[in-house]
Amino acid sequence: MEISTNGWIVIAVILAILGIGGGAIATTILQPLGPNIPFTTPITDISTPIGGDARHQFNQGIWAYREKAYARAIDCFTKVIEAEPNLAEAFHNRARAQANLAKTQAAASDFVTASDIYSRQGSRSGINWIKTDLNVLTNL
Q1: What CATH number does residue 91 fall under?
Q2: 26 falls within a domain
Q3: How many domains does the chain contain in total?
Q4: pTM, full prediction
Q5: Which residues 6+ apart lie within 8 Å of 123 measured at CB?
């Protein structure tokens, strides 16, 4: 089957539209909110001891966060959560990184989980920090 010149033009236009649209979507989803990033610093101190690999991933997440590589930070904190599901600071940092990428529903869910863990630990400062962060999140 042979494609005419007009057919090739139509295919080229469709591919260009898909490329531009896909690029715009990826840029929107994976880029931070610009100069108005709501959470500029990660939580660095942890409330409970964690294992070596989880600690390494936590540190990598902190580094990625500080470099504004929020998607990579989310991946690192997700790995920490898989290994240490009761580490409030991992949920807290992942929530902050998600908020910085405008993923507000995912951020809210992680903030609530972090709050539950802080509550079980009796960490009033952690709960207060979450309340402040949730207020910031609702104003985005």
Answers
A1: 1.25.40.10
A2: no
A3: 1
A4: 0.76
A5: 47, 88
